[in-house]
Amino acid sequence: MISTPDPSATNQASFAEAYIANQERLKGYVYSLIFDWNDAEEVFQRTSLGLWKKWDQFDSEREFLPWAFGMARIEAKRFLAEKGKQESMLSDAAMEALDQAMVDRSDGWNERLAALEQCVKKLPSQQRSLLWASYKKANTVEQIGQIFGLSANAVYKRLRRIREQLHQCIDLRIAMRGDGN
Which residues form the RNA polymerase sigma factor 70 region 4 type domain (predicted)? Predict the structure, then answer.
């Protein structure tokens, strides 16, 4: 007996590929909607779970990001309503504009993320440690200062310089690729 491919399994595989390829952009989008880091992580997890639950509704002929962004927007609104923080939500028009901007620029982001990864690897270990400490959810600037023996103001200044270095490195790497290097 010849077995026919299961269209459900094919759609699930298409969904999984699209989710994995766009996971970081989706996370970035959620973090642009929700200003508190911990809340944004919660909304991202809820969005991811919701997307996986509805994978069978994913149409592989359409773009994944607009669909995922719509789900994220619904989860963000629901979460903020639960917390009584609706006033901190962007307007629907602003969210739609953000959606479109992120979809339009999505190809360039992969290149920028790859360049960022390489540029971070080139930082001296102390700068990398300071940068990672600043992105940990639980650390305040004062706590980071205590860890590194710096004042809060010194932490802000060093982080600004590190970020400027990274921006320059990323721009240089992308420019070099554009020249065929």
Answer: 114-166
What residues does each domain of the chain span? 7-104, 108-178
Q: How wide is the angle at C-alpha 63 spanned by C-alphas 58 and 64, nearest 5°?
A: 55
CATH class of 108-178: mainly alpha
> Residue 124, Cβ neighbours under 10 Å: how many?
9
Give pLDDT tens digits for 37-77. Answer: 788 889 999 999 999 998 888 777 788 888 898 899 889 98
**Tell me, which fold does domain 7-104 have in CATH?**
Rna Polymerase Sigma Factor; Chain: A (1.10.1740)
Angstrom CA distances, 137 to 36, 60, 132, 141, 144, stand at: 10, 35, 10, 11, 12
Cβ neighbour number for residue 34 with a 10 Å cutoff: 25
Global model pTM greater than 0.70: no
User: Would you state the structure tokens that stand for residue 17, as one six-digit string?
Assistant: 């590929």
For the chain, how long is the longest CA-to-CA vector?
Answer: 74
Do residues 80 and 34 make contact, with C-beta atoms less than 8 angstroms apart?
Answer: yes
Percent composition of the chain: helix, strand, coil (DSSP 3-state, to 5): 80, 0, 20
Q: Do domains 7-104 and 108-178 have the same CATH topology?
A: no
